[in-house]
Sequence to fold (65 residues):
Amino acid sequence: MANQLKVTLVKSVHGRLAAHKACVRGLGLRRMHSSAVVIDTPENRGMIRKVSYLLKVEEVMTPCD
Fold:
């Protein structure tokens, strides 16, 4: 399992529910095509699941020490 996830906002939040806008902001995304790398936690997975129709998600593999 990946330690981190790269999320990219591919659709606009204009006209979306306030809760969905809050999830997008909570993931560190500001505008269309912005990306953020977030830690793979159940909380972040829940936010990603809620607004998955707005996002592109990629797993980022980190090298093990």
